[in-house]
Amino acid sequence: MSKRKNGLAVLALLLSLVGGGLGFYSVFFMPNIILQQASENSVISEMWFDERETAYAAGYSFYDIPDLGLTITVNPGEKVFILFSGEIQILASGWGEAELRFEIDNNEIDSSHKQFTGDSSSDKYGSMTLQYVAESLTTGTHIIHVQAKIAFLSTAYIRNMHLLAYTFK
User: Fold this and answer.
1) Parallel, antiparallel or unpaired: strands 79-92 and 126-134
2) Are 45 and 75 in contact (CB under 8 A)?
3) Prediction pTM value
C-alpha cells in the first residue's frame, strides 16, 4: 500500500511541476510571443480608452451613447482600429432587436453596423462587441462615438461599456 501511495505522490508532484512550468511559461513568455507576432507587420502608435458603467436605454432612432466617446489624433499613413464592448439586455414581447454602429466626425459608419436579438424570456445581460478599422481617415483630430437604437416595441439596456481606439501603421 505504501508503494502505491508513494507512486501517487510522485505522480502528483510531477503533474504539479508540469502545471507550474506551463503557468510560468504562459505568464512570462506567451505575452511577448503574441505581441511580437501581432506587431511584425504593424506598429501601434497611440491608444485611447473610455468607459461607461451605467445603463443606457436605447431609443427608436440611432443616437450617440452619452458619456462615451473618444477624441483621437491620426498621423500621416496611420489606420485606426476601434473596439466597443459591453453588455446588453433586450426585452420585448416576442423577439426584440437592438443595433449598434460607430460614428466618426458625425458621419455614420454603416459598414460597422451590427444587430443583436433577444426575447422576453431572457432577463440576463449578454456580451456584445463591435469593431471596425478606419483605413482612410485624414491626418488630424477625429471624434468617435457609438450609436445605438432599438426596433419598435423593444427595450434594450446597454451597460458596462468600453470604447478603445488605437492608431497603427
Assistant:
1) antiparallel
2) yes
3) 0.73
**To which residue does cell 505575452 refer?**
31
C-alpha 28, offset from chain centre: 24
Cell numbers representing residue 106 in the block: 458625425
d(CA 33, CA 108): 37
Burial class (CB in 10 A: 0-12, 13-18, 19+), 75: exposed
- Strand stretches in 1-139, DSSP E: 44-52, 56-57, 63-74, 79-92, 95-104, 107-119, 126-134
Residue 100: name the closest of 135, 51, 151 by CA. Answer: 151
**Cβ-based neighbour number of residue 97 at 10 Å:** 17
- Grid cell of 7 as nine digits: 507512486
The third-level CATH classification (topology) of the domain covering 44-168 is Jelly Rolls (2.60.120)
57-115 pLDDT per residue, tens: 999 999 999 999 999 999 999 999 999 999 988 876 667 788 999 999 999 999 999 98
Domain ranges of the chain: 2-38, 44-168
User: How far apart are alpha carbons 167 and 107 in whole angstroms?
Assistant: 19
